[in-house]
Structure formats: C-alpha cells, structure tokens
Design brief:
Helix content: 25-40%
Shape: elongated
Largest sheet: 7 strands, parallel
Number of domains: 2
Strand order of the largest sheet: 8-7-6-9-10-11-12
Low-confidence stretches: none
Oligomer: single chain
CATH class of the largest domain: Alpha Beta
Number of strands: 13
CATH topology of the largest domain: Rossmann fold
Distance between the termini: 25 Å
Structural class: alpha/beta
CATH superfamily of the largest domain: NAD(P)-binding Rossmann-like Domain
Mean pLDDT: 97
Radius of gyration: 21 Å
Bound molecules: 2-keto-D-gluconic acid
CATH architecture of the largest domain: 3-Layer(aba) Sandwich
Strand content: 15-25%
Length: 315
C-alpha cells in the first residue's frame, strides 16, 4: 500500500508526478478548510513535504500529524521548522543543499553588480528617455579592488567568494569558526568585518543564532560608502535599522533578495533608488528547482526503504 504524504506546497510538475507515482499525496494548498482537513485526516500522514515559504512546521502543525515520521524540506534552509519539536518526536528531516549553491551565489552577484553599477536604474534611465533628455547616467562605483565581506562561509558563501574573487575583489569573511581550508582573512565579529569591507554579503543560515545579526552598529561600521547584500534570510537583518541607515545615508545602498515579512516588502525599501530588490529567487531556476524536487523524492524514498537519508539534517 502507498504511504500517505502531506505536501505543503507543490514541487514542479515532473517531480510532483514522481511523488504521486510512489505515494498517496495530499495537497494542503488545495484544502479550503486546512484546520478541518488536518483535524480529520492528520493521522494518516507519515511523511511531509515542507518549504520555507509554506506553512510553518511548529508544534501546532506537528500536533495535527501524530504519525509523522519524516519531513523532506524543499530548500537548503530549514528555519521554518521547529527542530526541538522534531527531535522530541523522533521525526527525521532532510533538506536540499548543494544543488542550489551556484544559483544562489549567482543571485548574490546579480545584486552586488546591480547595487554597485546600478544596472536596473540604468535600464530605467534609458527606457524613460532620460539619457536623451538629461545626458549620461550618473557615475557609479566599481567592484574591482574592493573588499567583499562574506558573513557565513558555508557552501554558498564559498561559491560567492569564488565569483567575487573572479571580479578582482578581496575576500574577507566572518563565520562561527575559522576554516582551515579557506584562504581568506577571518573575522570573529561581524562588526569588525563590516568595518573592513565595502560590500557586506550575507550568506549565513537563518534562525535564532543569526536573528538580527545585522543591526545599527554593524551598519554604522559598514559606513557611508558600504553596501549590504542579503541572499540569506530576512531575519538576519533588523530591517528597521537598515531602512533608518539608508534614509540617513549611513550606508550607500543595498541589494536584497530576502525580507523580514515575505512576500510583503516595506514601501520604504521599494521607494528607494539605492536599493535593488528581488523576490527571494536564489534557487529559482527550472533546473535547480527540479533538482531540489528530485532530492525531496529521493530522501522520502530512502527513508521509507529503511535506508539513510540522502541529505539529512536530523537523522
Ligand atoms: C526556498 C530557500 O526554499 O533553499 C532555501 O533555503 O530559501 C529557497 O530555496 C524556495 O524558495 C522554496 O521555498
């Protein structure tokens, strides 16, 4: 008999079909009365497919899934999941690392280039006829010779470092511990890194450990010619402090893919010319989302075959 899985958000069509081949998949997003559905059928589910931008996986949802054994997260980050509650119940968790590293690092570069060279603003300038009417676009600032300070030197941080180095930037980094195999200058304190860099790039995990790590003091240290780039999590930045620093000219600009309250983005950011925005698209290519979906299915298959998870977070 097929195992019954609850999916909080859809995978791409091909991977959804793959899931349907092996499992009885119930789609929470199709339920009008989610609470009623979970109350009546929650006991059926042994597996859960979750995502960062779906229902939060906390004590409440877990209580309604009393027979849950495995969660396969569609995403590398899992700060939407209450790990303590999982461990208390002995539920295992997988995620989708590695397959999204390059795409996410590419988006960091897209934001970095657009923050410095103002690509989006330059496009608008031309389209709105301002080149003809007002003359050349205002001068911008270069990347080469500048310091990229990377907060979080995991796989994505390292992929960003390789790209930034290819743009002739000097790399410095801050992470929990110094990494012996990384050739860049290490800083134990984020504020110290911010003081030493031109572009502060956030590539760390979300969650309580990094919550509001970028605050007024860090932005002050980054200084009036510094830029903040965030492809990590909105929670890493105290967004009110960022907006205040931008409004006061305490930093030069920002490139943001992630926000405090997605998908709602503060008008005070939207209305600023010195900010480049993207709607949480780090992993959002067809190829990568497909690979992420496959990993979700492979992890569930491994678990139900009694094997080790392919990419475990909590095993
Ligand atoms: C999302 C992400 O998972 O991998 C992560 O941590 O934030 C993204 O890849 C994706 O947008 C689906 O929610």
């Amino acid at each position: 008999m097929k195992k019954t899985i609850l999916a909080l958000k859809p995978l791409l069509e091909a991977e959804m079909a793959l899931l349907d081949e092996t499992y009885e998949v119930m789609r929470l997003w199709e339920q009008d009365d989610r609470a009623g559905f979970l109350a009546s059928q929650g006991g059926e589910f042994e597996g859960l497919v979750s995502t960062y931008d779906g229902e939060k996986v906390g004590a409440g949802l877990l209580e309604s899934l009393p027979n849950l054994k495995v969660i396969a997260q569609f995403g590398a980050g899992y700060d939407n999941i209450d790990l303590a509650a999982l461990k208390a119940r002995g539920i295992v968790l997988s995620n989708t690392p590695d397959v999204l590293t390059d795409d996410t690092a590419d988006i960091a570069m897209l934001l970095l280039l657009n923050a410095a060279r103002r690509g989006v603003a330059a496009d608008q300038y031309l389209r709105n006829g301002r080149w003809k009417e007002e003359g050349p676009f205002p001068l911008t600032t270069c990347l080469s010779g500048k310091v990229a300070g990377i907060f979080g030197m995991g796989k994505i941080g390292q992929a960003i470092a390789r790209r930034a180095a290819a743009f002739n930037m000097t790399i410095k980094y801050c992470s929990r511990t110094e990494k012996s195999d990384i050739p860049y200058d290490y800083y134990g304190k984020l504020q110290a890194l911010a003081r030493e860099c031109d572009f502060l790039i956030l590539a760390c995990s979300g969650g309580p450990e990094t919550q509001h790590a970028v605050n007024r003091e860090v932005l002050e240290a980054l200084g009036p010619s510094g830029y903040l780039i965030n492809i990590a999590r909105g929670s890493v930045v105290k967004e009110d402090d960022l907006i205040a620093a931008l409004e006061a000219g305490e930093i030069a600009g920002a490139g943001l893919d992630v926000f405090a309250n997605e998908p709602n983005v503060s008008e005070r950011l939207i209305n600023r010319e010195d900010v480049v925005l993207s709607p949480h698209v780090g992993s959002a290519t067809r190829e990568t989302r497909s690979k992420m979906g496959r990993l979700v299915v492979e992890n569930l298959n491994a678990f139900f075959a009694g094997k080790a998870l392919v990419t475990p977070v909590v095993a």
